[in-house]
Amino acid sequence: MEFWNLLMQILLLLVTAFLMGVLAERLKQSPIIGYLFAGILIGPWVFNTDAVFQLSELGVALLLFSIGLEFSFKRLKSLGAMAFGGGTLQVCGTLTIFTLGFFYFRPLGEALALGAMVALSSTAVVMRVLVDRAEIDSPRGRNALGILLLQDIAVVPLVIMVTMIGQGGSETSVYLAIAKTVFGAVGMVVLFYILFNFLVPLLLKSRTVHASRDLIILLTIVTAIGSAWLAHALGLSPALGAFIAGMMLAECEFAAQIRSDIGTIRTLFVTLFFTSIGMLANPQWMIFHLHWIAAGLAVMIIGKVLIIYGIARLFGNSRTQALATGITLAQIGEFSFVLATTARGFSLVDENTFNLIVSVTITSIFLSPYMVSHGGKMAQQFMRMMSTKGAQPVLPDDETAPETFEQILIIGFGPAGQNVAEGLLENGITPSVLEMRPAMARVAREKGLTVHMGDAGHDEVLQHAGLGRACLVVVTIPDSRSVQDIVKNIRRLSPGSTVIARSRYNIHTAEIEKAGAHLTVDEEVIVGKHLSNNVLDCLKGRGDINFSCACALAGLPDEFSQKAV
Fold this sequence. Notes:
By secondary structure, this protein is mainly alpha-helical. The protein has helices spanning 2-26, 31-42, 49-68, 73-77, 81-103, 108-119, 123-132, 139-167, 171-205, 207-210, 213-233, 238-249, 255-261, 263-279, 283-288, 290-314, 319-328, 335-345, 351-373, 375-386, 415-426, 438-446, 459-464, 480-493, 506-515, 523-538, 545-553, 558-564, and strands spanning 407-411, 432-435, 450-453, 470-475, 498-503, 519-522. Helix 1 (2-26) crosses helix 2. The termini are far apart.
């Protein structure tokens, strides 16, 4: 009975989130704002909040797992010193500066706890918005990712610190807790390396698993959730564990398909996460203490922007990039709720301070979609205002650049796709291939082509295959219904790409053209014309018409038929 009550409460949350998300979209706002409002509205009617919060943690873990699939260790290295050195400096610097500020008003233990809360930013909000805007590879996107990863690593030491302050633990107990965390992290990485470099790719390549779409999806979900569970069991951040697992699978040829397969369940849990954040709000307390919330929010945002700006400049970022990174990470993160709850449990903070930090955090998360979306423009405008030379400022690197089209993408590498590729290669053009069958992918690689593995019916797979850079897309798969869906997705995701599609039967040609194909190759029409030409060749004054026709239709040379007469 308890399970069904919990299910009813989750359903109520999701329905409200859907309605508020629709309203936010109608008002041209981020759906995240709608989800947060849904949590505030429905929170008083949800009684099993602990279970909801625990389930919602999966949302952050699945989001980080998906992002990890985009970042192999090679790509992680490309984040540079800003990711590791900058992230470490940001956590330590923010903790130190805000602790000193709070220490003027509060005892040292409480000041340290509050400083730790402010040091963290929201991985879920920032990454969600950057991924939705395809800006994860922009300068501020890379800076933000690197700093957020270090913050996720720092969560466990910060929780240990707050716990030890609350318990009044000795230095020995602190060192033991840190050592346990380090050994757990090393063990997790070793286990993940074995699982995700050998076992999981082997299973994905096996014919038995690959023959069933359900088995692939099931293996994907088990991998994502299992990595989060293992990290939690070892006392580490589930989101960090999921990210590392995703990174180790990033080199796997099925990475794009895996990310696509968990898309639906990820959306479910991420939505639940944002509604659970809204549930933490105390609207009545917030209304009566708006002045304190506004003051705390202003101090926190300005302080974090300045600290991150200084660190980014120290690591060689331009002023605009540094300011954009600071604006992007200016909120307080979701893991601060864990620290706040821990601090309250040990009476490090009183109820009013707890409500204040929770209210400031929720308000900052409300503002985050706007700050992340417009961080680049805000930085540019501020630098223009501060410019004393009157020269036109250079556009920030993370502003949307004009589209550039530089490749031809072949979807499907059966006989039709292979013939298209051969014709292009003969003319000095090297296409790339999107194929979901391992055997056909091997054939394409043997020809020296770049191959992306996955189902072209999924947006994420198309984007990972470089659809945004494709001047021409050739859809060669035989199933007409799938062709229509793929063509629609291509035109929606990349309106500037020209689409040539295969139509196996004439009855489907008009539907494929209606879906958006610029040119449709109708197999029945082409075959009919070819047959007609062969028939006419047979009727051009040959001695034995019947035998000539037989030879022609069998594909034998004309000379053979003439000699046979």
